[in-house]
Input
Amino acid sequence: MLALLPESARLTVLALPTPPPALPAAPAAGPLDARRDYCVWRASNLRYELHALNQRATVAYRWQQALPALLATLPPAVSDPALPSDAASDWARFSYPRLLAQQCADAFTPDDAAQHHLLRLQAEALETEAAALATLLAK
Output
């Protein structure tokens, strides 16, 4: 009867299903617990770095909000040609506060924002891994 079937059909008829692979033995708890401890430790360090960036972002944001009002209270910039000639003597008094306010408002750069997001994502990933390892170790 098999002789009547084409060659491709004979191979499918004769092929037997393979047994499922054996499950691996449960991993030792020691290395998993060590990895969980490392994840918790590293995530806490990243959160500490993230806290410092959050503080810098908050200060820069507050300076940016206050900058228009601060600049409005200062006299015009020294480079203004409409100023009288004696205004050049007040350069340090007028330009330094303007420069300081601008630098404080620009203290949080786009690179800092990218670093903030990277640190946050790394900390969240490590915290998720630590939670998964804790669940695995609890079983």
Observations:
- Residues 4 and 137 are 58 Å apart (CA to CA).
- Residues 29-73 form the longest helix (45 residues).
